[in-house]
Input
Amino acid sequence: MNETNDPHIIEFSDVTKRFGILTVLDNFNFSVAKGEKVTLIGPSGSGKSTVLRILMTLEPFQEGKLTLAGTSYHEPGGKGPFQASETHLRQIRNHVGMVFQSFNLFPHMTVLRNVVEAPVRVLGMARAEAEARAIKLLQMVGLADKRDHYPVQLSGGQQQRVAIARAMAMRPRVLLFDEPTSALDPQLVGEVLSVIRDLAHEHDLTMLLVTHEMRFAREVSDRVCFFDKGRICEQGAPDEIFGQPKNERTREFLASVLG
Amino acid sequence: MMYGYEWDTTTWLTYTISILPIILIGLTVTLKAAAAGFAIALVLGLVFALLRRSRVKVISWTTAFVVEFLRDTPLLVQLFFLYYVLPNFGIVLPAFLTGALALGLQYAAYTSEVYRGGIEAVGRGQWEAATALNLTRMQTYRDVIIPQAIPRIVPAMGNYLVAMIKETPVLSVITVLEMMGLANMIGERTFEYLVPLTLVGLIFLLLTLICSAGLHRLQKALPKAGIPLR
Amino acid sequence: MDWSAYLPMILQGAGVTMTITLASIVIGAVLAFFFGILRVEGGPVLSTIALCYTEVFRGTSLLVQLFWFYYALPLVGLSFEPITTGILVLAAHAGGYGAEIVRGALSSVSTQQLEAARALNFNRFQTLFRISLPQAIVEMMPAFGNLAIETLKLSSLVSLISIADLTFTAQSIRNLTLDSASIYSVTLLCYFAMSLVLMVAIRIIEHVVRRGDVFPRSAHS
Output
């Protein structure tokens, strides 16, 4: 419980997640250290996005234990691992932010309001303060001049950069990226990756990234995990995984994506 | 038809049982009126839709105006108009037919939009492909356009049928003795409106639920494999 | 037929029709949002109650409802002025249909939007009022427009519970003059004109709703 002594900010122990009869995660064990940048790679359907969605409390799981910053997802007195009350889940969510594949900006709000709304409503921040911070974040992603635009008026890459600013505005300790560049035209991928690269330099921010951009993964991660069939087959430093993968499946996968 | 009937108003149950036969007679009138009205609406609506697609501007604009006018004015006033004004022109119809005609006219305005939407949704590319294959206009409608339009049209038409059934009580004002008109007459004679009106309301509710369920099944049964619906 | 004698009557009747229609639309909209939101967010008990409300007012005929409240309610000791009954029944009827519109629009808000709201830790009310409803309202507008016109047309039925609206006035004048063709033509035209006015008003409201907080119409990129 005492998180200063616990080097791990995220800890999955024996987590099992099923969709109907399909087992997506099978006795899954995985932990992430505070400030660590971890990339999850693997074929589609291997369960890597599910890990992020469980962390964000978008998906329940059936068995096992998951803690984040010392707080268990399982509420004491709850019946199953995920029978927690909304109040409890909202406490957990305070620590986590997420960047989605399809951006999911709010179409009816301007760029600035997209970034300001949650800090004001959820964190109770004064609007002026929230706006000042939002503008800083928008400057960081290079979009301060688009503050009064609506999302539809932006390109996909710009939308995704706003979405990153929006997630950061909530001061998450853990930031999840679920294939942030998969929905983008190839020429727009670079601008988003460069924003993520800047964030990777933030010492305290823990990052989990699901991506198919292997070169980028190699560049920014402290650790790369290869997923296959709901398990981590192989993990290690990027140079190990990409340089001399030991597992046969990892080699096959890398050969197929690196061409 | 009410003379000679006695109603037992001692309890709501005996009252219900004693008026049920006559209400059910009214139900058949309701259903017949809706069926006749809907038949008119289906045919006339198609005529409106085709006229609206006419290349002669005067025809398409006039049709558009007529449809809009029918859509935007109350059924009740249209009904009065037909009932009181048609005889001035020597057209004397039985009340039932006048009622069915009024229902049919009003709903033809709605169904014409459904036809139009269904046909337009099939899209230009299909017409062009049919032309490229050298199909005649008739063949194009029969083999290409209509099969694709039907799954789009049927659900909306069904909803209008249900809506029309619920509007038939209006016909009671021109002496068509459908369910609600009878319930009112019973009420007038017994000074007990609650039971007959509630009964009629419940029958309408039941009708609506049954029709919706039937429509749902019909929608599933329609051949629509491969047709991109919206 | 001498119109100068009847014009004031017709205008007065049209005024009553407009009043009843507008009052019903406003009250109906409140009911629509209340029950529509309950349908989606109410939990098992409240959403069932909302479902019963919509099914009853959509499933039984409006004229039956009017007579029921007009004739039957006084018998159990509840009685209102006819105009109150007329407005309330029309409003409840419109509210039933409106609740379905609200429910449909709310459930068409994408799960991705809801997930984004969740990831930002909005609570249920914030998600509903800040994220779902503002997007859903734009979707509702065309259907609400049709419903408003429908309410205007159906308001003619209140003439059958002795409210002196436009249709009732037309009937009275016909009984005096027996000139059915003129009086019903004028009445139909009056309703048509009121429909057009209502449509323009709806367009303006729709425009405001779209422009204010919501989606600009054209997307570039």
In short: Chain B touches chain C at residues 69, 71-78, 80-81, 84-85, 88, 166-170, 172-173, 180, 183-184, 187, 192-194, 197-198, 200-202, 204-205, 208-209 (CB under 8 Å).
